[in-house]
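ligand=adenosine-5'-diphosphate
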Amino acid sequence: MQNNSATESGSPYYQCYLALGSNLTNELGTPQDHIVTAIARLADNPNIHEIQSSSLYLSKPYGVTDQADFINAVVACQTDLAPHALLDVCQSLETQANRQRLRHWGERSLDVDILLYGDKQIETERLIIPHVEIGKRNFVLVPLEEIAPNLKIQGTPISDMPLSFDWQGLALLGTTN
Ligand code: ADP
Ligand code: MG
């Protein structure tokens, strides 16, 4: 479903996909704890429904390689939050995991990115959708293909994207529950 249902207030629901990643243990828990807690918080959000989580994956760091391996997952959901309000939710999950802004693409207790928001294209100072890196990261495309094998990304079937089947540097860890 893209945006063909409506809430009681009349706002449409959008099918969205979020990417979660963590490679830092802090006082609140391990990378796996941060991801599982964030997914539970999304499930508790009254504006977010029909959550579906991928398995957890272990991935080699991307870009900045002198850091610990990451745990990644992708979540599908339906929401009537506007795109920037959904970004606010994602960023508050990062804050709740005590994310410290260290170095670009560096270690973090929690990163929550919006991959897709319906089939909308958005380009503002704070938010670019589809996520600019979506087609370049197997640790996003493999879990996305797991939960949405028929998804199209800007018209391209995910099954036609080679990185959605590229397990280089990636290992399956298990489910989130
Ligand atoms: P990264 O996710 O690339 O490691 P950050 O999590 O530090 O980097 O995010 C940097 C900025 O990217 C955020 O402040 C946010 O405003 C912006 N941003 C742009 N598009 C998106 C998106 N689709 N999802 C999440 N953040 C985004
Ligand atoms: Mg981010």
